[in-house]
Amino acid sequence: MDSALIAHSLETLYPSPPLKLNTPQQHVIETLWPRIMRIIGPAILPSVASFLTPSTRDYFIPTREAAFGIKLSDYEHPAAKERAWKEVEPLLLELAAVLNKTEGPFVMGEEVSYADIVLVSMMVFLERCCAGSVRRFEDVDEGFGRLWRACEGWMERDD
């Protein structure tokens, strides 16, 4: 993904307010997220496949099954999704610890940072693929809900 490159370019072009790039909080989020997706990914991938055109789906499903070493159809069952959410909970608690180190709704307190944008964009992705994902985050820790509500205005679609 080119998000980090874009963020660095924006920081150079528009240094104020700062995006607070390369923070320890951002590092934790970016380290945990692939581990989270490794667990929860198979549970949401069938939903992702349903958004795709038939020809794209024909490519997507076998490549994801190979990457995860599972059959996506095995994860369409609600019990499999529940197991994945339960299994990922300890990692979500680690993420919550990052959020809860400050009083404000954002990772670094009262001001939004790139770390917030990274985390919320991941939450948006999960929510769009699997409605109710944000509620599951909130069930683990209310800090996720505070962050979500603080960023709602930036998540509105205008298409």
Offer a concise description of the structure:
With 159 residues, the chain is mostly helical. It is 72% helix and 0% strand.
Describe what you observe in this structure.
The protein has 159 residues and is an all-alpha fold. 72% of the residues lie in helices and 0% in strands. The longest helix has 28 residues, at 24-51. The protein is globular and about 45 Å long.
Features:
72% helix, mainly alpha, 7 helices, single chain, 159 residues
Order of helices and strands: HHHHHHH
**Alpha-beta classification:** mainly alpha
Terminus-to-terminus distance: 23 Å
Total of helices: 7
Biggest pleated-sheet summary: none
Rg, Cα atoms, Å: 17 Å
**Count of extended strands:** 0
**Percent strand:** under 5%
Form type:
globular
Q: Residue-averaged pLDDT, rounded?
A: 88
Show unreliable segments: none
The residue fraction in helices comes out at over 70%
List the helices and strands and how they pair.
Layout: H1 3-13, H2 24-51, H3 54-68, H4 78-99, H5 114-129, H6 133-140, H7 142-155
Helix pairs in contact: 2-3, 2-4, 2-5, 5-7, 6-7
